[in-house]
Write a structure and sequence with these properties.
Layout (H helix, E strand, L loop, with lengths): L6 H12 L6 E6 L5 E3 L2 E2 L6 H7 L7 E7 L4 E8 L4 H6 L6 H8 L3 E4 L3 H9 L4 E4 L13 H13 L4 E4 L1 H9 L3 H24 L6 H14 L4 E2 L4 E4 L20 E6 L1 E3 L2 E2 L2 E6 L6 H18 L8 H18 L5 H5 L39 E4 L2 E4 L4 E4 L2 E4 L5 E2 L14
Parallel strand pairs: 1-7, 5-6, 7-8
Antiparallel strand pairs: 1-4, 2-3, 4-5, 9-12, 10-11, 11-14, 12-13, 15-18, 16-17, 18-19
Length: 423
């Protein structure tokens, strides 16, 4: 598959970053850590999203150093990569040459990692501020790469006059608005995801297993040239519909049940995020159809509200009001229950527990905050839902929306009004 990005894209991202840095500042980007799976095996490697965004380098044990020299009004850029030996090449395979790393990233100064300490120490002597990522994820997990912790501790011991700043707010502001190339990569991922769903409609039937559905999705993604799944796929049949992040995917799909599919391909590190809920037998019951149409109605209204100037917080409030009205119409709530509800836990929360939207990009739940005013070029999910645990099913529908004065549904070619399926 043709790559969507070349070195000019990554160089442009760095250039935009320099405009936000303090004078005489240094940016250090570490690659993602390799996580042991068992024995001497690692989980499949994926680069840290910021490190990829500013360099395009996807190899482990990579460090990017960017220096903004205000006195000479110039920048210095370095990438440090693994120096492969014969054993490594035999057991693991190809690693970047210096020329390859430069061609990918547009960074001229490529060194092997053993040169890092020498060069970084020379730069620290003329640096006032060092930026690095504190968390590198939207959820703020407490985990931090041990390499970052060790490096920061060492610098604090040796250079008492250096200030440390968090890079995350700067990278977040740059990553939120997508370029034409980023939108194209996302659209490619969405198209591959949509084709996989079309294939799935022919595959699903009573008696199939959730893991068979997952396998078919994986086959479709890889056959189309995608990097794989952007996140662990959810293939939830029956009462599993009501487990928001269910991904065990081991149950059998039975006649009369619904199958909730939440999945997305990843292309050039950019994610798609799609959810569809379909009847295993090909036909909804009357009740299932009524709930499906309620969720669909909310989705159609909400995606039109994803315009510049609003926020995810406002979208969540709007969606909750719409869901509340649908729950009244479905007989799941009464006006009395709403009038006497606990404001800390509104009555609708029993049937709708999550927000309607999140940012999408290099991470499927991409960097960005719920009070960030939306701007053209941002990509968001639109995923209303109703879960009825007492009736043993839930329905969620999700498309990816490009923010604009007239919002653009990037999933518009993927069947949405799936009321009765033709086999």
């Amino acid at each position: 598959m043709k790559k969507h990005f070349d070195k000019s894209f990554f160089a442009s991202n760095r250039k935009r970053l320099y405009t936000q840095l303090l004078p005489d500042s240094l940016v250090i980007l570490f690659s993602a850590e390799q996580f042991p799976r068992n024995g001497d095996q690692f989980f499949k490697y994926r680069q840290n999203s910021d490190t990829y965004y500013f360099s395009g380098l996807t190899q482990e044990q990579t460090i990017i150093v960017l220096f903004n020299d205000s006195n000479n009004k110039r920048t210095e850029e370095y990438a440090f990569i693994i120096e492969p030996d014969e054993k490594m090449l035999t057991w693991i395979g190809h690693k970047y040459s210096k020329q390859e790393a430069s061609e990918i990233s547009g960074i001229l100064n490529i060194e092997f990692t053993h040169k890092f300490d020498e060069i970084i120490n020379s730069l620290l002597g003329k640096t006032k501020t060092v930026y690095f990522s504190y968390k590198s994820n939207v959820r703020g997990f407490s985990y931090q790469n041990p390499a970052v912790k060790e490096w920061k501790h060492n610098i604090e011991q040796l250079h008492h006059n250096i200030y440390f700043n968090d890079l995350d707010p700067l990278s977040m502001s740059l990553r939120l608005q997508k370029s034409t190339a980023e939108i194209a990569a996302t659209q490619n991922a969405i198209d591959i995801t949509g084709n996989a769903f079309q294939n799935m409609l022919k595959f699903v039937k009573p008696g199939c297993w959730e893991y068979e559905v997952e396998a078919e999705l994986t086959r479709s993604f890889l056959a189309a040239g995608a990097d794989g799944h952007a996140y662990l796929p959810i293939c939830a049949s029956g009462s599993n519909n009501c487990i928001l992040h269910y991904n065990t995917n081991r149950n059998q799909c039975k006649d009369g049940e619904l199958l909730l599919l939440d999945f997305g391909a990843e292309v050039d590190y950019y994610a798609a995020d799609l959810t569809r809920t379909i009847p295993v037998s090909g036909k909804f019951t009357v009740r299932q159809k009524a709930v499906y149409n309620s969720v669909l109605s909310v989705m159609k209204q909400m995606k039109q509200r994803m315009v510049p100037g609003t926020t995810i917080n406002q979208l969540n409030s709007d969606c909750e009001a719409l869901i509340e009205q649908e729950l009244l119409g479905l007989g799941l709530l009464t006006k009395s229950e709403i009038a006497t509800q606990n404001p800390e836990f509104p009555a609708f929360k029993k049937f709708y527990m999550h927000g309607v939207s999140h940012f999408i990009g290099l991470d499927v739940h991409d960097t960005g905050k719920k009070d960030t005013p939306l701007l053209p070029g941002m990509i968001l999910s639109c995923e209303p839902a109703i879960y009825i645990a007492a009736e043993g099913f839930g329905i969620r529908i999700e498309n990816d929306i490009l923010v604009a004065d007239s919002p653009i549904d990037l999933c518009s070619n993927i069947p949405l009004e799936v009321v009765d399926l033709e086999r």
